[in-house]
Amino acid sequence: MTKSTGILSGYRVLDCSIAMAGPFAAQRLGDLGADVVKIEPVTGEWQRHVSAGGAKGNRINVSFLSLNRNKRSLAIDLKSPEGKATLMDLVKDADVFLQNYRPGVAARLGVDYETLAKLNPRLVYVSMSGYGESGPYLNHPGQDLILQGMSGAMLSAGREGEAPTAAGQYLVDAVAAYTAFEGALAALLHRERTGEGQLVQVNMLDAITNIQMQELSVFTVAGKPQARSAEPHAHVYIRAPYGAFATSDGYIIVAFPPLKPFGEIIGEPSFLTMDDETDSWAQRDHIFARTRERLVTKTSAEWLALFRAADIWCGPVYGYDELLKDEQILHNKTFVEYDHPTEGHIKTPGFPIRFSKTPSRIERGAPITGEHTREVLAEAGFSEDRIEKLLASGVVSQGEL
């Protein structure tokens, strides 16, 4: 096993999660140096068999590849008595246990917090769900788009009367992943101070609601209605103009500029006598429409140069191809590249947190199913004979490159 030098080196995480939110949270822990053991069925985790975007890969599809780097795979049948006993032995020395089973499944499998805490009182147990561990939505599917719709966020942008538009990323999954990651770190800090583990519960509905702290407070405290405009204004609680606008050769973002200098640059006389704090709200549709009409007369580069010279907030609208070529992205080394034994050369987003003394790095790419079964069990003290019997019985499986 490669020795990690990351900031979480020495911590063992048992990742029993599936799909995106749980694996993404566990991957973040692995990126920081934790030894993340992905506990998956002998046939492989669900995400191995579902290819987002139709990107199947060679032996590992891109969805799984993107969410499971810096992990080792232990393939095990948790429904069998021997498989359950094997996991229990691993729990005794683990630091974090992460799962996003449907409510009730962990208890049926005998891997709920109460059971595992008896084996290991220092265990940080992270339980992720769609809507919480109880309540009327207990059995509703916790799917990203469904929760985007429930969150209210979709009605903070776009045109009045038109269907809301979903975020361009799996927003709720990502927010829930980072929330669980944050919870795991906080609970580990508490354990360092007190010696005690605890249950950490994260649900997707609360996570996506909580990041709207400012917007929802404007609604609940100030009583400002969430009223969309006739024009596709980018956020109901920010003054006009605010949104993406077409130019002669693409799109740019303009973010609530002072109206007089903005009007002078784009050649719109009606803006010159407007008050930023009153007219930019009262005449939001007019301002948006006139901005849209004026901006199609020049290229994106021309407008960005003019606006930046006047200190007006603006920016390009990128596709992924432009994003990858952006000079700041290149300077930041935002993307990382490495070679995977079955999938070839990989280029993916890297590490969003930078540490001067304990930098994150890729120790390994996403594993094939059961690639590290023998290694993990041997490290946990399982005899060679016991490992062979588990393999022969099918309770665990071992993949080979």
UniProtKB/TrEMBL annotation:
UniProt entry keywords in alphabetical sequence: Transferase
Pfam families from the UniProt entry: CoA_transf_3
InterPro entries reported in the protein's UniProt record: CoA-transferase_III_domain, CoA-Trfase_fam_III, CoA-Trfase_III_dom3_sf, CoA-Trfase_III_dom_1_sf
* Keyword Transferase annotated: yes
Alphabetical list of SUPFAM superfamilies matching this protein: CoA-transferase family III (CaiB/BaiF)
Annotated GO molecular function terms are: CoA-transferase activity
Keyword rRNA processing set for record:
no
Q: Can you name this protein?
A: CoA transferase
